[in-house]
Design a protein that fits this description.
The structure holds two protein chains of two kinds.
Chain A: H1 3-24, E1 45-51, E2 62-67, E3 78-83, E4 90-95, E5 101-106, E6 112-116, E7 125-130, H2 133-137, E8 139-148, E9 151-159, E10 168-173, E11 178-183, E12 186-189, E13 192-195, E14 201-204, E15 209-212, H3 218-221, H4 225-229, H5 232-236, E16 241-246, E17 251-257, E18 262-267, E19 276-280, E20 285-291, E21 297-304, E22 314-319, E23 325-330, E24 335-340, E25 348-354, E26 362-364, E27 370-374, E28 391-397, E29 402-409, E30 417-424, E31 429-430
Antiparallel strand pairs in A: 1-2, 1-30, 2-3, 4-5, 5-6, 6-7, 8-9, 9-10, 10-11, 12-13, 14-15, 15-16, 16-17, 18-19, 19-20, 20-21, 22-23, 23-24, 24-25, 26-27, 27-28, 28-29
Chain B: H1 3-29, E1 56-57, E2 62-64, E3 70-72, E4 81-87, H2 97-112, E5 121-127, H3 135-142, H4 144-147, E6 154-157, H5 162-171, E7 176-180, E8 186-192, E9 195-199, E10 204-210, H6 216-234
Parallel strand pairs in B: 4-5, 5-6
Antiparallel strand pairs in B: 1-10, 2-3, 4-9, 7-8, 9-10
The chains are: A mainly beta, B alpha+beta.
């Protein structure tokens, strides 16, 4: 090959690499960024993992599927629902690496329900329930489901012994068999002492680093929120650390002091960036995790979310595909806030809209043009009476204004409390 | 047409022509697409300093070897440390089969550079497509690697039929889809998630690599780790 040809080939290869890098990243809350078949265009369905409410419909936890394609006749309507029987505090979900299956966990009963959403995403098919998490690991409250090649990494929130915050992670293979467990770090790792708590997971394969955050145990998340905030001892039982792990070795390398319970963690999806961001629930801050210049990592408080003295309770975040923007939902005031992350050292809140009386999860489409919001935080933490709205609200985002697209009222439809969302799209023909 | 739009249109046509010319050139000269390698920006932990847990058992099945005869898959997944990839010969995805091939070539060099690893490992490339990828096509795809078994044999296998292939795919939890064109007709593109399986001499899967994790230096340490484990077991 002549030199000009070689150069031309390299240029095209680089362009393709950039294109693939861009296309490969979609933002869905808690989504492992290296799953397959990510949705590059319009999502067809939004799956909502929904908490059953006694006396409402069948009262059971269920996976609710809503048509989200504007070109579809069923746009904005519930097209499928599968109840799992009983109430186990339905909370988070995660796709397997091949995006064929969706794993959905219960924070109370510690059951993990697996659905096939790859074969026909309009009609997720229940496959099996994993009920041996506590027996295999001693952990309870499966929260984050993070896809790794051929297996699922599961972050728990609590333990079977005292239902406190000390917990760990488990790995199951994609067929649902237990593989290994890892305790969250306690004691000093570097200069900071680990608290043994866990919440979210975020992996950066090119740096071989896994970040974890910390929340609270069963005793807290199953307690009535009004009662808990008056309980001084309970309020001490929240996580205040993050950890950076050697992913390959699955060993903690550094602990960071991050007061006020750091929750969801997102790496910037821009391949040029080397930072991640999180929000602290109780102290209402954004923290940046970035290289410390000495081969390690550091955590840095970079912004305030609303008025921390009013405890707006930032509960979920969603980062844009280019790493330039971040949606933040604050539960107590029902606000959806957009932060400009052009300078991640100094995020700026540039847009705010009241999207509900209570809001929890926020997920944006990979192109950033659609934003979805749900309402439920935890069964015993949701607001009471008229403030207990339960919904999925879809919005169009044009960079300036969130404009309503459609809404499903989960109370009116007798579905329950709307929690975690995942997107799916109709796939190709199976061989 | 406004001037800016005309310029953009001309640029698109030129780029398209360039892509066609480049892909034609690539086919003539190398017969393989250029792989896009994942970035590796870390020093992997030393071999033997971490655990490689048993993820699952490698499935059994019937495959067609270089001799055109049927063999049990376990003949290629037991007795040595095995790196198995599922590919098809006419795949054009830069982060798919081409990456599996180039990563294996790079890893092969590293394994062969360490005499203590000679005779301890093998590579296996197994086709997704029993129809087009005959055993002759697989040997042609493997080229000199298929013929040179010194130190590190590399087997290029296929299956006799989809009936034989399916239990193997199911066992490795690998789903494939035929991509369709605008009219819903099958194209020559098989959509699959690239995964390479590291299997110990007992036939147990100890690591799975997808595109973002295909880092030859880390993979070499995994092979070294399994060799150290074997040697410790013998003592």
């Amino acid at each position: 090959m002549s030199n000009p040809q070689r150069i031309r080939r390299r240029t095209i290869a680089a362009a393709l690499a950039a294109a693939f890098a861009g296309a490969a990243f979609a933002d869905e809350t808690c989504n492992s960024p290296y799953t397959a078949r990510l949705i590059k265009g319009q999502e067809d369905y939004v799956h909502v993992w929904t908490l059953g409410v006694e006396g409402v419909g069948d009262g059971s936890d269920k996976l609710v599927t809503i048509d989200a394609n504007p070109k579809s006749k069923g746009y904005g309507k519930v097209v499928h629902s599968h109840s799992v029987g009983g109430r186990g505090e339905a909370h988070h979900m995660g796709f397997t690496d091949d995006r064929k299956h969706l794993w959905a966990g219960g924070l109370d009963d510690s059951k993990i329900h697996i659905f096939d959403v790859g074969t026909d995403p309009a009609k997720p098919k229940f496959v099996k329930t994993i009920a041996d998490l506590a027996k295999q690991t001693g952990f309870v409250g499966p929260h984050t489901f993070y896809a790794m090649p051929g297996r699922m990494l599961i972050q728990s929130l609590s333990n079977a012994k005292d239902h406190g915050g000390k917990t760990g992670m488990a790995i199951y293979n994609n067929k649902g068999a237990f593989v290994a467990k890892y305790d969250m770090p306690e004691g000093e790792v570097g200069v900071v002492k680990g608290d043994g708590y866990g919440y979210d997971i975020a992996i950066n394969p090119r740096k071989n680093v896994m970040l974890t955050s910390s929340f609270a145990g069963w005793n807290n998340y199953m307690m009535d929120m009004g009662k808990m905030v008056k309980d001084g001892e309970a309020m001490k039982r929240f996580g205040a650390t993050m950890a950076a792990w050697d992913l390959k070795a699955m060993k903690p390398k550094q602990i960071f002091s991050v007061p006020g319970s750091p929750l969801e963690i997102r790496w910037s999806l821009n391949p040029k960036d080397k930072w991640a961001i999180t929000a602290t629930a109780l102290t209402s801050k954004l923290w940046l995790i970035k290289p410390d210049g000495k081969g390690g990592w550091q955590a840095k408080d970079v912004a305030t979310i609303g008025d921390p003295s009013k405890i707006p309770l930032p509960v979920d975040i969603s980062i844009s595909a280019d790493g330039k923007g971040l949606w933040v939902n604050t539960f107590m005031d029902g606000l959806t806030r957009y932060f400009d992350l052009s300078n991640p050292e100094a995020p700026k809140e540039t847009y705010t809209k009241k999207t509900g009386k209570q809001v929890n999860m926020v997920s944006q489409s990979w192109d950033g043009k659609r934003v979805y919001i749900t309402s439920s935080l935890l069964a015993n933490w949701d607001k009471k009476g008229d403030d207990n709205e339960q919904f999925l609200r879809a919005f169009h985002w044009d960079g300036k204004e969130l404009k309503p697209a459609f809404e499903v009222d989960f109370n009116k439809e007798k579905l329950g409390r709307a929690h975690h969302m995942k997107f799916s799209a109709k796939g190709g023909k199976k061989t | 047409m406004p001037k800016a739009a005309r310029r953009l249109s001309a640029l698109c046509i030129a780029l398209a022509a360039l892509l066609v010319a480049a892909s034609a050139g690539a086919h003539r000269e190398e017969h393989r697409p250029v792989a896009v390698r994942p970035v590796m920006d870390y020093t992997p932990p030393p071999a033997g300093s971490y655990a490689l847990h048993v993820i699952q058992r490698a499935p059994e099945g019937r495959v067609v070897g270089a001799d055109g005869r049927l063999h049990s898959l376990s003949a290629y997944t037991r007795g040595r440390i095995t790196l198995l990839s599922l590919i098809y010969t006419y795949c054009t995805e830069p982060t798919g089969c081409a990456l599996a091939y180039e990563t294996s070539v790079e890893l092969r060099k590293r394994v062969l550079a360490e005499p203590r690893l000679h005779g301890r490992a093998r590579f296996v490339s197994l086709s997704f497509d029993p129809l087009n990828d005959t055993h002759q096509a697989m040997q042609a795809y493997g080229g000199s690697y298929a013929r040179d078994g010194k130190g590190l044999p590399w087997h290029f296998l296929t299956t006799r039929s989809m009936q034989d292939l399916k239990p193997i795919l199911d066992g490795f939890d690998q789903e494939i889809e035929m991509e369709l064109d605008e009219r819903g007709r099958p194209t020559r593109t098989i959509s699959h998630m690239l995964k390479l399986f590291l299997i110990d001499r007992e036939g147990r899967v100890r690591e799975i690599y997808s595109t973002a994790f295909l880092h030859p230096e880390a993979m070499l340490n995994d092979i070294r780790s399994l060799v150290m484990e074997e040697d410790a077991g013998r003592r």
